[in-house]
Design goal:
With 452 residues, the chain is α+β, with helices and mostly antiparallel strands. The protein has helices at 23-32, 62-71, 80-90, 99-112, 115-118, 122-138, 146-162, 171-192, 197-200, 211-226, 234-240, 252-283, 285-299, 313-325, 357-360, 403-418; strands at residues 47-48, 57-59, 142-145, 332-335, 340-342, 345-347, 352-355, 421-424, 433-435, 439-441, 446-451. It is 47% helix and 9% strand. Strand 5 (340-342) and strand 6 (345-347) form a beta hairpin. Bound molecules: protoporphyrin IX containing FE (HEM). Protoporphyrin IX containing FE (HEM) binds next to helix 12 and helix 16.
Length: 452
Amino acid sequence: MKNVNAARLVPPAPYPGSKDLGPFTRLARMTTSQIDGLPKDVYELDTWCPPFPGMPLLIMDPDLIKTVLLDEAEDFPQGALFSRIMKPVWGEGLLLSQGDAWKSQRRAAAIAFRAGSMAALTPFFVQATERALQRWQARGFGQMDLLEEMKRLTFDIIIDTMLSGAEEIDRDALRIRIGALFADISKLKLSYLVRGDAYHAGRRSQTSVHRAPVVLFLSNLINARRAVPPRGDLLDHLISAEDPDSGRGLSDDQLIDNILGFILAGYETTSVALTWTLYLIASDAPTRARLLEEVHLQLGQAPVSKENIGELRFTGQVISEALRIYPPAFMLTRIVGRDRMFGDRRLKAGQRINIPIWAVHRQARNWPDPHAFDPDRFDPESPAPDRYTYMPFGAGPRICIGAAFAMTEMTAVIATLLSTVEITPPPRQSVWPETGLALTPRGGMSVTIRPL
Ligand code: HEM
């Protein structure tokens, strides 16, 4: 891995040790922001536990992370609190199913998301970005909230790729409903967090009033699509997908729950990832210049296509580094399934374990000059980072199924935008990462966009 040049951009973030907090102030800070109050130890040590009973154990050591996410993943489930929070949205979909039910759905859906088929979706990504550019042009460009714009764009993309032919639907209405479903999850999260995991086992989840209309819409859409020849989008892949071992496909309920889940998982995460990446590019002139050079060299005047998208290597490096600096999934969480030894600690069943991806990505022992933005860390000529020190998409059997989709989508969107507009970032002091369901810029991201 390359050494980082001292003149590199150091983006806004709570840096370890920049605040000397007492334990109670720290606890208060950690309940409002899961990254703000993290002590220096989390950026340096293997494990850390807040000095209060019943608090989660944080693990940063790559070997311990591998044990939890891969080697002994079945002994570290996501837990009852997670299911209770997510069930009103995800129903019985992939994210919440366990054991054989999960395996069978995961294998069936993996076929629809295999990395090799993602380049073929490039025209969908480019057309949706061009529609966003037309919207901006129609209003004379100028100042806008980049986060809101990226939400609208990624929502358009997910609808186009997942449910093509759904042109007649009222996208804004559906997006608002889905936003409301999200907001309900955040509310549930706060109200459920006060009790330990065991309390939540077997308890009913509060339902969201926004779920039923969305489910009805998807159910009608699936019925309509079963009646017409396949169009080759993700919904067709999911309808025809079968687990290669059992030959079982997805039931209608599973299809609905998974489509809803993919919209939710793919919409919020990718829109914040794009916002942060574009912010970093706009703030770092040398990176922007290299990107433009790559885009001109590889694409000339042509749009990004399935043939040339693989050539945009530096764009991929920039996205990878942005996902290290501002990982949308900033914290993964699991529960200890049975009393056991873990490293040199004895843990009880039900103990919560958190993997602070945010801090793992910023440990100096793994990343020289860890807070600096340097896409050359991901130069294909340099050794790749250890699997368990870089995990924007998680790791192990539950690794993000949409990772290749998201990377291809972001590459196409960024290359299309860079070759047509210039983005001026907001003043540094107005940018701050906030921990909601994803790592989001607080108050949005007010930028100025001009045509080139
Ligand atoms: C930059 C964008 C994205 C990021 C950072 C991201 C991150 C993640 C992470 C960290 C996990 C693992 C969670 C855990 O282990 O607890 C995950 C799981 C998942 N993601 Fe993504 N994701 C992104 C985009 C997408 C997209 C576009 C889709 C679908 C279209 C998607 C669908 C899923 C699903 C279904 C799972 C659950 C997989 C399972 O439990 O088997 N994600 N994602």
